[in-house]
Automatic annotation (TrEMBL):
GO CC, any one term: protein-DNA complex
Protein name per Swiss-Prot or TrEMBL: Response regulator transcription factor
Pfam families: Trans_reg_C (PF00486)
A molecular function GO annotation: transcription cis-regulatory region binding
Region (Disordered): 103-128
Domain of life where this protein originates: Bacteria
SUPFAM superfamilies: C-terminal effector domain of the bipartite response regulators
Occurrences of domain OmpR/PhoB-type (ranges): 6-105
Organism (species): Solirubrobacter ginsenosidimutans
Example GO biological process: regulation of DNA-templated transcription
UniProt KW keywords: DNA-binding, Phosphoprotein, Transcription, Transcription regulation
DNA-binding region: 6-105
InterPro entries: OmpR/PhoB-type_DNA-bd, Sig_transdc_resp-reg_C-effctor, WalR-like, WH-like_DNA-bd_sf
Amino acid sequence: MNHPEIERIIVGPLEIRPDRYLVLLGERTLPLSARELTLLTVLARRRGEVVARSELYELAWGASLARADRSVDVYVHKLRRKLEAAVPDVRFIHTHHTIGYRLDPQPTPLSGAGGARPPGELHPAAMH
């Protein structure tokens, strides 16, 4: 029996399986909306590249971006917040002002007390 190959996109500590609507951070599932998953998948397939806001909109919404529409920014903010809540010592999505966004996980210094964890280790709050 022939089984189609399952698409797996690995970017840093993320494993994305778009065909199963699944994002994993280590052994944990990261709950995302369909739109957030679509945006993350687009960015992951082009990891390290700046993807224009207009292109993200076209691929995720299937239409052209209206001039004052901030939908991409809002959803990227939501996605960034979820990723960084799960792994606070990694900055996943980088903003290129007036252009777009780039997915490129980079370690960031932890703020406040509590000590550092190894890069990519899940934050205890993300383990529920």
